[in-house]
Structures are given as C-alpha cells and as structure tokens.
Design brief:
α1 packs across α6. The chain contains 7 helices and 6 strands. Helices cover about 30% and strands about 30% of the residues. It has a 6-stranded mixed β-sheet. It is globular, with a radius of gyration of 18 Å. The chain is of the alpha/beta class. A hairpin with a 2-residue loop joins β3 and β4.
Length: about 200
C-alpha cells in the first residue's frame, strides 16, 4: 500500500511540474500587455462584474480568452483573482487581500490564506471595498478555466503511465467552487485540453 501511495505522489509531482512548466504557462499572453492591446479596440461592454480566477496573476486567464472568443464582449468591471496559500496556519487580516486597479475598471486581486483556513472568494472580494473595488454580489459572474489533462503519446521525459495516473487523479479532484466557497449558480466554466 505504501508503495502504491509513493508511486501516486511521485506521478502527481512529476506531472504537476510538466503542467506548470513555462511551455504550458507560456501559452497565454502576459495580462498587462494583453489588456493594453485589448483596449486599443475595446469590445462591447456588458453590465456586471466578471471575476476570472487564475493561478498565475501575471498571465491572461484562459477563461478570459475563451470568453472574448465566444461571447465577443467584456463586462463593465473585470477582476483577475489569485488565491495563494501561505506556509502559516493563519494569515493576518491586514495581509488577507491585495487589490490594485489595472486599467478601464479592471482589477488584480490576490487573496492569501493559511493552511488551516478555508478560502472564501466572495468575502475576499468584499474586503477590497476600501481599495475602490465596489461590486454587487448578485451581479458577479465567476469565470473558471477548466483544464482537462490528457496524456500525450509523444511526451518527452515523462513515462506514459505517469501521464495516465496524473490525468486520472486530476479528473477525480474536488470541485473548486466548493473549495473556494463560490456560489455555484454564478459560475461559468470554460475549458481547454492540456497535453502532458
């Protein structure tokens, strides 16, 4: 049993490094440059607030790219939110959120939690009020990027069996909306396939 658990953890770590490699992260443009080019010829704006959850705060979320591609509109207010976990049990309330305005009613928010805390995205957004980010919770739509991990038959450096184990573990991972306490009726998931 211990050997099986070691194999699973080892496969997870090796594949996680591959998924978060510059090759995969580099497939999205830098957020600041993308926003500058987007507002040279701005798309139609629609009422409400869009919150794009992203693990890399300086990279354009895939959900935004897919949303613009398919809907061809941008919300009046857009928030690019990253949730970070620190190596401490609890984060001090003064350090909970970092909120900065980018341009044209677009914001970057980083919410920080300790490993003993339960993240709450809605509450973190409310804490941004003093920084100027005002939103009505019933007008917020959360856009999530759903990556479907698929093993690659031509992967370099990773054994195919590790790809398959990682893909199965990623498929069985918990739901992000429950983990981050996001209202499920306010979520739009846009997906992409990621080959290891």
């Amino acid at each position: 049993m211990l050997i099986l658990a070691t194999v699973d953890v080892n496969a997870w770590l090796v594949a996680l490094v591959a998924v978060t490699s510059p090759r995969v992260a580099g497939s999205s443009p830098p957020l600041d440059g993308f926003m500058q080019s987007l507002f040279q010829y701005p798309p139609q704006r629609v009422p409400g607030t869009a919150v794009f959850l992203t693990s890399t705060p300086d990279t354009t979320p895939n959900a935004l790219l897919h949303s613009l591609k398919h809907y061809k509109v941008l919300h009046e207010q857009n928030v690019f939110m990253t949730v970070e976990f620190r190596d401490v049990p609890y984060v001090e309330p003064d350090d909970r959120v970092m909120c900065a305005q980018l341009t044209n009613d677009c914001w970057r928010v980083v919410a920080r939690y300790g490993f003993m805390e339960t993240p709450d995205v809605g509450l973190a957004l409310e804490l941004c009020g003093p920084s100027g980010l005002q939103l009505e919770p019933m007008e917020v739509t959360y856009f999530l990027s759903r990556e479907k991990i698929v093993p690659s038959l031509h992967a370099e450096g990773i054994a195919l069996w590790r790809d398959k184990v990682f893909a199965a573990m990623a498929r069985n991972a918990g739901d992000i909306t429950d983990f981050f306490n996001i209202p499920t009726n306010r979520v739009v998931e846009l997906g992409t396939r990621v080959q290891l």
